[in-house]
Design goal:
The protein is α+β, with helices and mostly antiparallel strands. It folds into 3 domains: 72 residues, no CATH class; 80 residues, Phosphorylase Kinase, domain 1 (2-Layer Sandwich), CATH 3.30.200; 249 residues, Transferase(Phosphotransferase), domain 1. The strands form 4 sheets. The protein has a 5-stranded antiparallel β-sheet, with helices on one face. A 3-stranded antiparallel β-sheet has the order 8-10-11. The chain is globular.
């Protein structure tokens, strides 16, 4: 419990009042001066005398004569929209501006001081948070509730991505948009797309993101047959780096797929589209199982589980990892959930209570509905895993039917698959790109870049 302060005695109150009055007097004495000319100063006298009741010989010093250190301080405070008034001194400064306005209008010339003060706060200047501060350049895509445009900021000239969300009068703002904006505001990492601005109007809610020119899906389409193994390492490392950051903050992405992984010109990968993301700070059984695009949806969610955690995202990481190396989706279901599960069980084996404790209690698991398959080596399904060091072992750690067996993002960052990368990558601050390390760069892609290295290597891999 806090100690209570004793009440101040009347004498002490009087002393404090005198001290405050003396401080204010000293402040005013620094800006008071004797009348030097009639014209400009008379206007100041007229305005100030009506407010303070002072006579014509008590004039305020023009802005040009204020010492530079104080001038800068007042200029800065004058443009802080959240700063509270700081007594009479600040009001005096506003009167000085009025004096300058009066003088410049009477002479027909604009004062240099006026230009410096008025341009940043001009009503016509573009500002953050305003719809007219961004110019739409072209449409990038359209979804069920939002349209994405490439745009340009009129404030700083930078390219941006404008996610324009249509608001329905009856339904209001889509909850996914609110969730995406609220989560991204708190996520500051170089491998997570940056939310610059939020613009709200009666008809739309616009989220303004940094512009990244392509995504992993388009990148793989441009380089079919599998990516260069060194590039796969760099992309996967960045994906795990961004996920580790979000998971440590108890946030699940819940919609990992190549289309939601943006790729910059330099090769920076950024997690995007947090519309299905969810903060998980406490254990819960209320999550929806209608998350994650079908091809990247884990078997526990396909079977109706709503009790999941970060392991949900790690299955998606495994699918994306295989796709980058193989050049084709790991489990491309063509029909429905049943077909998707069959494709998974064909490779990993049909689960049982022995291999997956609790699987029989999942809502959609019916043993008689599934063919019984035995598990295979992953390279039997995706042969190119066998030609990249440690790739098959790492993929197998992600693609585990039993959720609790999946490798975490933080642990995966220290897997042997990344042993050839520079040690400095593990020491980088959150907002530093891996490409800030001089020796780190993307390798040129050449179509089907992952080739069988040699007959002897293929033979040695087949023995494991």
């Amino acid at each position: 419990m806090c100690d209570l302060m004793p009440a101040a005695q009347p004498a002490e109150k009087i002393g404090k009042m005198k001290k405050l009055r003396r401080t204010l007097s000293e402040s005013f004495s620094r800006i008071a001066f004797k009348k030097e000319d009639s014209g400009f100063d008379e206007i100041c006298v007229t305005k100030m005398s009506t407010r303070s009741g002072q006579g014509s010989d008590s004039l305020i010093k023009p802005l040009d004569t204020i010492p530079e250190d104080r001038k800068v301080q007042r200029t800065q405070s004058g443009f802080d929209p959240f700063e509270k008034p700081a007594g009479q001194v600040k009001r005096v400064h506003s009167e000085n501006n009025a004096c300058i306005n009066a003088k410049s209008s009477s002479s027909g010339k604009e004062s240099p001081k006026l230009r410096r003060h008025s341009s940043p706060s001009s009503p016509t200047s573009p500002k953050f948070g305003k719809a007219d501060s961004y110019e739409k350049l072209e449409k990038l895509g359209e979804g069920s509730y939002a349209t994405v445009y490439k745009g340009k900021s009129k404030v700083n000239g930078k390219l941006v991505a404008l996610k324009v969300i249509r608001l329905q009068e009856e339904e209001g703002t889509p909850f996914t948009a609110i969730r995406e904006a609220s989560l991204l505001k708190g996520l500051k990492h170089t491998n997570i797309v940056l939310l610059h601005d939020i613009i709200h109007t009666k008809e739309t809610l616009t989220l303004v993101f940094e512009y990244v020119h392509t995504d992993l899906c388009q990148y793989m389409d441009k380089h079919p047959g599998g990516l260069h193994p060194d590039n796969v390492r760099l992309f996967l490392f960045q994906l795990l780096r961004g996920l580790s950051y979000t998971h440590q903050r108890y946030i699940l992405h819940r919609d990992l797929k190549p289309q939601n992984l943006l790729i910059s010109d330099t090769g920076e990968l950024k997690l995007a589209d947090f519309g299905l993301a969810r903060a998980k700070s406490v254990p819960s059984h209320t999550y929806s199982n209608e998350v994650v695009t079908l091809w990247y949806r884990p078997p526990d969610v396909l079977l109706g589980s709503t009790d999941y955690s970060t392991c949900l995202d790690m299955w998606g990481v495994g699918c994306i990892f295989v796709e980058m190396i193989q050049g084709a989706a790991a489990f491309p279901g063509m029909k429905d959930i049943q077909d998707q599960l069959e494709r998974i069980f064909l490779v990993l084996g049909t689960p049982s209570e022995e291999t997956w404790p609790g699987v029989h209690s999942l809502p959609h698991f019916k043993p008689d509905r599934f063919t019984v398959y035995s598990p295979k080596k992953l390279r039997q399904a995706w042969n190119k895993l066998g030609y990249v060091d440690h790739a098959e072992e790492l993929a197998s750690r992600f693609l585990q039917c039993f959720p609790k067996n999946r490798l975490s993002a933080q642990a995966a960052l220290h897997h042997e698959f990344f042993s050839h990368l520079p040690p400095r990558l593990w020491e980088l601050p959150d907002m530093s790109s891996i490409f800030s390390v001089p020796s780190v760069k993307l390798q040129p892609e050449s179509g089907d870049s992952i080739q069988v290295c040699s007959k002897s290597k293929a033979t040695s891999n087949s023995k494991h």
